[in-house]
Design brief:
Number of strands: 19
Largest sheet: 5 strands, parallel
Structural class: alpha/beta
Distance between the termini: 53 Å
Strand content: 15-25%
Length: 449
């Protein structure tokens, strides 16, 4: 927030004129036009046993939907996408397609340029959402079974939709005011413009049979025991609510923030000119959150933005495309450095002292060299953690997250889990959708047995 304390330490709102804000936060990758989509669709070989479809975590029949675009059948293309991935519109915007379906495209062999699968998926789903017409899906006859889904992120939404389609009544519990999880609160604004996340949620809920209850925090307003007593099954799509600490003393100083909170505030803002940002911003971390926070800091008017990561570029969880996007937008990325001290003065951040790092015998070590980066805003983006306390001791954990079988079933009868709270995932939106989708099939089988 823009306060006297923040302004005193160099954090200001309204660094740009209104036209600059509008331009900076417009769609980062404008959609394909119809001629562009038709030309791109014709590049597809429509492979049998297509490797791109195998590489898609939700198993979208990619050649099929692209062929329908080539036939100018956008509704049919959208159906093929949304049958496999009910959040296919958002995934088209945020999926790291360059390391999934597009990396597997056979066009890479001869041309080193895959078919633009993500852009074509967005083209088809955008066309559908603009003019949806008759419903794509119809609910099965009511089963009389009730399922509680906790968490309305991608996993919870996909599970709720899959259960509702099969005729079950679903109650969807969400702690925040809006549904969508990271799709609503955790992505850069330029990736999902025009309130698309909520439009997709509205479509998903239109299947019917899903009751929404917001403001319901797991562990405070609802408990696992109470849900098991009132519902036939429970799905936990809790996400990651905790934020990793820097591992060094964190002063109570203006300008030191969690990157996820910064991004959420930006996403929910109706007037970007009111959002304060530092003149010099340091982002600590190497993932997509770090890139989104850094680039948006620049787009808000920060003059110097630096991402600092403890290892090399190849170890960053942000894809090479995202790293290049950050650099193209004026963000400096410094590798091989770990924070040693957050510097503050008069209750305000002044910079960060870093230790140079290197690999020695396969282990990350400090070299003995240090350097300092001046900053009036420091954003922590070093990962999030699962908060296990609300789950209690009744469900087995592994590596700090919920352990499940391949279908998402936990160690506790009648309880499934998916998304980032489940162990073994890659923390991708598309993978969370698949978790929810698979769990819905498993829950349905168990309820109808």
């Amino acid at each position: 927030m823009d306060t006297p304390a923040s302004r005193a330490c160099g954090i200001h709102a309204a660094r740009l004129n209104l036209a600059d804000y509008a331009a900076n936060f417009s769609d980062a990758h404008p959609p394909l036009t119809r001629p562009q989509a038709l030309i791109e669709a014709e590049r597809c070989y429509y492979c049998h046993d297509a490797p791109c479809a195998t590489a898609c975590p939700t198993g979208i029949d990619i050649p099929s939907f692209i062929h329908r675009i080539a036939q100018d059948n956008n509704r049919g293309a959208a159906r093929a996408i949304l049958e496999a991935n009910p959040l296919g519109g958002m995934c088209a915007r945020v999926c790291p397609t360059e390391v999934l379906c597009e990396q597997a495209c056979v066009r890479n062999t001869n041309e080193d340029k895959p078919v633009e699968i993500g852009s074509l998926q967005r083209y088809a789903t955008d066309a559908f959402f603009e003019k949806p017409g008759a419903p794509l899906f119809k609910r099965a006859a009511a089963t009389g079974k009730r399922v509680a889904v906790v968490g309305a992120g991608p996993a919870g939404l996909a599970c709720a939709h899959g259960l509702a389609v099969r005729g079950h009544d679903v109650v969807l519990f969400e702690a925040r005011p809006k549904l969508g999880g990271l799709n609503e609160y955790g992505l850069a604004s330029y990736k999902t413009t025009n309130n698309f996340a909520q439009k997709e949620v509205e479509w998903l809920l239109s299947i019917g049979g899903i009751e929404v209850r917001t403001g319901q925090q797991f562990g405070r307003d609802i408990t696992l025991d109470s849900l098991l007593g009132a519902y036939d099954a429970v799905f936990l799509g809790l996400g990651l609510q905790g934020v990793n600490a820097l591992g060094v003393a964190e002063p109570s100083a203006t300008g030191l923030r969690n990157a996820v909170d910064f991004i959420a505030e930006l996403r929910q803002s109706v007037d970007l000119s009111t959002l304060p940002v530092g003149r010099r911003v340091v982002v600590i971390g190497g993932g997509m959150t770090a890139v989104d926070a850094a680039v948006q800091s620049r787009k808000l008017g920060a003059e110097e933005v630096t991402i600092v990561y403890r290892r090399g570029a190849e170890a960053m969880s942000a894809s090479a495309v995202e790293q290049q996007w950050a650099q193209t937008n004026g963000v400096t990325i410094r590798h091989w450095a770990a924070p040693k001290e957050v510097l503050s003065e008069g209750g305000a951040v002044k910079g960060v002292r870093f230790a140079a790092t290197a690999l020695s015998g396969g282990k990350l070590v400090e070299t003995g060299e240090t350097f300092t980066l001046d900053a009036d805003m420091v954003l922590k983006a070093i990962g999030q953690t699962f908060v296990a306390e609300p789950v209690g001791k009744s469900i087995a954990l592994e590596g700090g997250r919920i352990a499940t079988d391949a279908e998402g079933q936990t160690s506790l009868a009648r309880v499934w889990a998916g998304g980032d709270c489940r162990v073994g995932g890659r923390d991708l939106t598309v993978e969370a959708v698949e978790h929810g989708k698979v769990a819905a099939v498993s829950i349905h089988a168990a309820l109808m047995a």
